[in-house]
């Protein structure tokens, strides 16, 4: 169950499939820069899933009940299966998975280190925020990908949304004690700020990936369009937080 | 791949299926004491898998490489799926899963607290020892169960053995530095000692489960037979450790 998701599903089925989006992997990957960008993207997503697995499993220790622990463990396990699919795809296209993930370890580990939840509710908000932002990003980026890579990214996306249960728990906690809302609102802003700052670090360091995002090898996206993508993701996040009772 | 396993597979297909072993769940569970024993057993196994998930996921943080981290995460995820099957079975037979697991939380958490690995190799040895002892125990206990419960226990058992990769890593580390073997041998003995001590605690506290193990409601096992079961499991453990280069 998803509580609130990006309303615009256009990215999943591009109205006009031109350029890379109309091609399959074999054809699109003939361009070495596009190939490098996809290896970067899959490497970043794969390590993102592996790191998410690790952190969710760790947060499961904060669970107040066995049922809550099992719910978080289930989310962690789902992330691990996403990791497997992305890693297998990397291997299938001839990229070494570990090498492909390595460039993104510092940024993702940095994000998680800076945002270690101090209690169960912070862990839930982080799981929900992380799951939602990941879904938004997958959906946005899907439109810029060849058919085969897009199918994989959307398949992994389809299987997210395990964080739905987090919403009920967070709402109940805020209902019981409204002051909790203020604290968690600050926390959610810190999560988003840290995510954006680590993303910028990655974009600055990975040429092929950034070039794909700004349209150098894809369907004519420009830098302003990337800015708008980040805006849309931030806006969707803000709306979700408001609906959750976590307005500023 | 399993490195060395209990050679005696007789327990999987009892030569003479009499008593409970010849019955299905509907018939066997008409005996309230047998029913309580199975709920205990499934509760203990379910929480064992959930706790194993949590610990393996935590140990994954000690992994020296991304491939090693992924391997441990895979084992953790497999444990989680075992948990799901056992929990679903508890629900299917009308037992509340959380309630059924609760009596075993203290013993299992105690075991893991007492045996937190201090490095990657200790984590691997623990994963291997834990996986092997669990397999041996599942196999032993299967013979005392009705057909339906036995099928579940053997299905979960079939899916273990993910710790095989641990063996290669441990052997390589001992080859590189034989002193490592001495330290890990002590560690393996401590693991087994702690496992036995927590098991005894459980056996002392859970009447229905213990009664089933000593044959009060099952196929005529006596206390000496339970002692022999523990002996067989310990002996198999010792042989595995010796084969791994971890003799005393």
UniProtKB/TrEMBL annotation, chains A, B:
Transmembrane segments: none annotated. It comes from the Bacteria. Residues 32-216 form the Ferritin-like domain. Coiled coil: none annotated. Residues 1-24 are annotated as: Disordered. Pfam families: MiaE_2. This is Ferritin-like domain-containing protein. It comes from Streptomyces uncialis.
């Amino acid at each position: 169950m998803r509580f609130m998701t990006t309303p615009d599903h256009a990215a999943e089925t591009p109205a006009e499939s031109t350029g890379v989006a109309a091609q399959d992997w074999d054809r699109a990957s003939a361009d070495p820069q596009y190939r490098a960008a996809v290896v970067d993207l899959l490497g970043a997503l794969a390590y993102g899933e592996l790191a998410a697995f690790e952190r969710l499993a760790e947060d499961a220790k904060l669970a107040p009940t066995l049922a809550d622990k099992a719910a978080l463990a289930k989310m962690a396990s789902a992330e691990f299966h996403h990791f497997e699919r992305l890693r297998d795809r990397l291997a299938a296209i001839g990229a070494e998975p570990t090498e492909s993930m390595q460039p993104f370890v510092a940024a993702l580990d940095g994000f998680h280190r800076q945002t270690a939840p101090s209690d169960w509710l912070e862990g839930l908000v982080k799981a929900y925020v992380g799951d939602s932002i990941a879904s938004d990003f997958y959906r946005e980026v899907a439109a810029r990908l060849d058919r085969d890579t897009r199918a994989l990214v959307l398949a992994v996306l389809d299987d997210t949304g395990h964080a739905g249960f987090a919403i009920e728990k967070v709402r109940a906690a805020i209902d019981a004690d409204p002051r909790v809302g203020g604290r968690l609102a600050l926390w959610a802003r810190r999560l988003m700020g840290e995510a954006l700052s680590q993303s910028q670090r990655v974009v600055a360091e990975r040429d092929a990936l950034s070039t794909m995002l700004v349209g150098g090898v894809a369907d004519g996206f420009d830098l302003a369009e990337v800015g708008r993508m980040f805006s849309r993701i931030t806006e969707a996040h803000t709306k979700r937080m408001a609906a959750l009772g976590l307005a500023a």
